[in-house]
Amino acid sequence: MSSELITLLSTTLTFFSIYVILSLSLNLEYGFTGIPNFGKVFFFSLGAYVTGTFVPRVMHFLFQIDEPICSATASTKRIVLGIQEPAALMMIFIMSLILSGIIGAVVGYILSYPSLKLRGDYLAISLLIVAELCRVFVRTEPSIVCGTNGIGGLPNPFIWIEDAITKEVSYSTLSATIAFLTYFFIQRIVNSPYGRVLKSIRDDELASQLLGKDVKKFKSEVLMFASSLSAIAGCLYAFFIGFVYPDDFIIVWTMYAWLMLLLGGVGNNRGVVLGSLVMVMIDRGLRRIPSFWLSLPFDISYLRGIIFMVLLLVIIMYRPRGIFPEKPLETPAKKVFETFIRNSLKFKKNNLINSSE
Amino acid sequence: MIRDQILHVSNLCAGYGKTVVLHDVSISLVRDSLTLIVGPNGSGKSTLAKAIFNLANVFAGEIIFKNINVTKMTAEEKTALGMQMIPQVSNVFENLTVKENLEISFFNTRKTDKNKKSFEDMLEYVFQIFPNLRNRENDKVKLLSGGERQMVALARALITKPELIIFDEPTAMLSPALSNFILNKIKEINHSGVAVMLIEQNVKAAIGIADYLYVLLSGKKVLEGPSEKFIKDFKILEDAFFGKVREV
Amino acid sequence: MAYGLTVTLSSIRIYNWAYAEYVTISAYITAVLSTRYLVNIWLCFPIAITSAVVMSILVDELVYKPLSARGSTIIQIMLASIATGLLIRYFIYIFASINNVVIIKAAYASRTIFTYNTLVITDLDVATILVTLSMMIIFHFILSKTLLGKQIRAMWDNFELARLSGVKVFRVRRFVCILVGIPAGIIGSLWSIYSTVTPTTGWILLLPAFAAVIVGGLVSIPGAVVGGYLLGLGENLIMAIAYRLFNISLAYKPLLMLLIMLLALFVRAEIIPIRFFTSSIHKSIFRRSGCK
Q: Has residue B91 been placed in a domain?
């Protein structure tokens, strides 16, 4: 295989993993618990901001870099140091992953407190506005990630590997592992008694409250967990692209997460993974096209956005529960029940035949 | 078709979304009569009323009003023909005043001459029937009591001079004294020459004022007949409610 | 701005995020026409307003109507409205980058008509205030006095009953679209004279409006106006004080707005019992005519 193809594949895999984590956490919130989170990009960007603030400062502290954090020389120095000190770099990477997770969880928990008292639509609006206002704040405030210019020089944790292909592949393998773990955990949660409580909250909040479940506690726990996951995705994204730029994190990310959710199917984890795969294929594919045969007088990303939004609108209109919606679980009890129904129907039919004779 | 029928519903199948609630229901209302529709909870009474106004999905069947086939018409067009319905819940515009409630209804229905003068006349007519509303004319309906709301709802329908009014459980959530008052008003309205289709759960209270009676049970018409017959033999009705249908 | 928003909000029961793009479109139209084609600025206004209205009707026909006919939930409609808004915005981006007008300002030099120390009032300021005020008064008149306004309010209140009362709901809805498009057009054109237009102009303008709507309570128009003023006033006043006293950077403005909004959310969630207070304010200020 040519090295170019491998690079393409590993980039796709990395993005795929990030998208999967993001969409699965949204599925946990909306698909299983019924929290319409329109501030997904906020929690995602939180991870990136944490990385963008934490990594350079720690590196500057550890290696005594004198230049201001935002300067270009500092960012090249950071990259060089990353190549020289692999062990420290890995430590920093792991620490910032954990830190993003924790901060995501904390912020998610704090925000869940006022917002879960709101009705679904209010919640959606307020989370959206919170996300957007925070972006505006971060881009105007230079002390966080250097304002509008963003911060660069976040070394890829495998930057010390000399072979470029191995480097790419190891990072994508790492993110894929994290994505798989996420999938595994969410699948476990959803099919546990805890998950059944979540589904009951989604279907009828009042009823599950009357069954003695603390709905608010469950909801804020879910929001906490999902936000933590999205922050981890944000951290992975920041390390992958190597810089944090506040204007990246506009509402489009939220819409992408929803698109992946709907492409797959609300409340269907496997479907959501598939949806992310479709999405990442279109995304990466469109990025590759113009170099071969399509020359446009404008940025290809606009075309991509139009395609995605049209796709989203079409899905909302014709398949509002997603393309592969949730199916009833095949539990042993359900099988027993179905056989019972089938048998009793047979019995009735026999009886009717008998009586007519 | 009988000459003096005002509304004829034949073989109606209706429901919400894809769910069928009403199965093959046929009823007909005689001009100037008061027809009572009874049935236990979930028997499809409200669905029938909504389906007649095309607010529920009609899958099959025909609705004929004054020899016009109105099955496909929208609710707005139907009100213009002189049909009115008073829904069971939220039957008033809460954030509007009493007068505005009546205005909206008056100026949007029946293409007769609409001017301030005729509105004032009708307002006077309605206030004669419900004197309580006269001094609450400019109050928001939100602030009114349950009984007064029901009066506004009735007045809203009456002010359009309809030929047919469908009442969907007008006495639900009212005290016995108030329900009697409302039922008497309905009887009065009926006597003034308006055909009434009354949907009720409280059979005993309503059967006295009714001319004809239909019983719905889980979406199907199970019994019908002149109400005197049922007053004499109330047991038939009771049995019908519990699922035992006898031939009348 | 907040005005047009609440009208759509409550009449179609939609959180209309695409509204921002109507504003952007009309801003671009004014700016491009006046700079590229040298159209008189006063002629640009009606063109911009018409296009905003057309856009509003188009979006309603193509997106919202099919969705509400399907019986979509409010979350789905919201999602669709954001998607529609982004879709329009991408088209604007494409248009802008092809024609090289990503940042543009309408050709109009404002005249200073009043100066006092550092306070400078231009004719534009006066025009804006006048237009906003007259828009408010006209809307209030339409909603409270005309039959159309009463029908609109009836529709907000109870859609099904409005149909049963013979309100031709789809025609009224069309009127609402027109009514809502007009302020979008005016705001967009005014903005393009005021400041530079970018494809995200509408979105940036819309955020405070939505915050104002949340602050003022989602359905009540006086509430949104009061909310808007509170937000604007509070923001500017507090920031000015903070800047003078503690030398806090003006960059914290969005943060402050965020705080105000979160506070309002707490209130709306009825954690702080302020309901009584607001309702009495409404009554005394806006409903005086209705009280005997």
A: yes
Domain C2-290: which CATH class?
A: mainly alpha
Chains in touch with C (≥3 Cβ pairs < 8 A): A, B
- CATH code: domain of residue B243: 3.40.50.300
- Bridge partners (DSSP) of residue B62 are B10
pLDDT tens per residue across span C46-92: 899 999 999 989 988 888 888 877 777 778 888 888 899 999 999 99
Residues B90 and B63 in one domain: no
Token pair in block for residue B117 = 């003068």
Model confidence, pTM: 0.81
Residue range(s) defining the domain that contains residue B35 = 1-82+164-174+194-248
Distance CA(B76)–CA(C163), nearest Å, equals 5
- Searching chain C, which residue's CA lies closest to the CA of residue B158? C165
Option in C147, C150, C164 nearest B53 (CB): C164
Q: Copy the structure tokens of residue A22.
A: 């993001």
Please report the number of interchain residue pairs, chain B to chain C, with beta-carbon separation below 8 angstroms.
73
pLDDT digits (tens, 9 = 90+) for A127-143: 888 888 888 888 877 77
ipTM: 0.83
Joined together, the tokens standing for residue C192 give 């393009």
Residue B81 exposure: Cα atoms within 13 Å on the Cβ side: 20
Tens-place pLDDT, residues C13-40: 446 788 888 888 988 888 888 888 877 7
Instruction: Confirm whether B66 is domain-assigned.
Output: yes
> Over chain C, what is the mean pLDDT?
72
Q: What share of chain A is helix, strand, coil (3-state, %, to 5)?
A: 80, 0, 20
Q: 95-114 in B: which are within 8 Å (CB) of C?
A: 95-97, 100, 103-105, 107-109
Q: Is B74's CB within 8 Å of C163's CB?
A: yes
Taking the Cβ of residue A113 and every Cβ of chain C, the question of whether any pair is shorter than 8 Å is answered with: no
> How far is it, in rounded angstroms, from Cα A86 to Cα A91?
9
